[in-house]
Amino acid sequence: MPSPDSIHANLAQGRSALASGQPGEARDLFTQALEAAQQRNAPALETDARIALAESERGLGDLAAARAQLQAALALNESSAPDPARSAALEIALGGVALAQGRAEDAQARLEAGARGADEAGRNDLAAAALMDLGTLLALQGQGEEALERYRQSEQKAQAAGDNLAAAKALANAARVDAG
Fold first, then answer.
1. Which helix (H) or strand (E) holds 80?
2. 178 or 19, higher pLDDT
3. Which sign, positive or negative, has the C-alpha torsion 150, 122, 31, 22?
4. I need a labelling partner for 14 at 20 to 30 A (CA). Which of 6, 59, 171, 179 fits?
């Protein structure tokens, strides 16, 4: 039976692949983590794997598959012990899918809720992701000043989380909005 450490390792490797622009490789690693979590009957790890798998599906453009993974993760999360960070991650991921599907109102509500939840849970990495997507949503809606503010907040949260790549992406997005 796979150990929790091996599941966490697959998740970490998948996140690294996703950050490196390899969503297909990430999906394979997340699928392995999901299968191992199911074997262990570990709902929290299964939820984490489904959230991660949804991100890779989103990266591959399969929004229906991403949403299906998130709906399954949401059901698992609701049936297990509450975890504020996991709940925030789910809101942020669902908001990201809604953004990609062009459902702006749903995206904004979920991303704002996710950002608040991430702050309450002390998860700067999650807050940075939510703020990045909020910046994108606002930029698409022609709200440049508000988008700039969200990108700057995202950069600050990413720096606080020690994620220099996410911070650089936030600054690059801010520069694009500022130049536009």
1. none
2. 19
3. positive
4. 171
- CA 69 – CA 51 distance, rounded (Å): 7
Is there a contact between 27 and 56 (Cβ–Cβ < 8 Å)? yes
Q: How confident is the model over 93-116, as pLDDT tens digits?
A: 999 999 999 999 999 999 999 999
Rounded distance between C-alpha atoms, residue 116 and residue 92, angstroms = 10
CA separation for the pair 180, 178 (Å, rounded): 5
- Which amino acid would we find at residue 100? A
Q: What confidence tens digit (pLDDT) does each residue in 42-94 have?
A: 999 999 999 999 999 999 999 999 999 999 999 999 888 889 999 999 999 99
Task: Count how many Cα atoms sit within 13 Å of the Cα of residue 126 in the half-sphere of its side chain.
Answer: 28
Rounded Cα distance, 143 and 126, in Å: 23
Tell me the two tokens of residue 137.
Answer: 């949503």
The pTM of this model reads 0.91
Q: Are 20 and 58 in contact (CB under 8 A)?
A: no
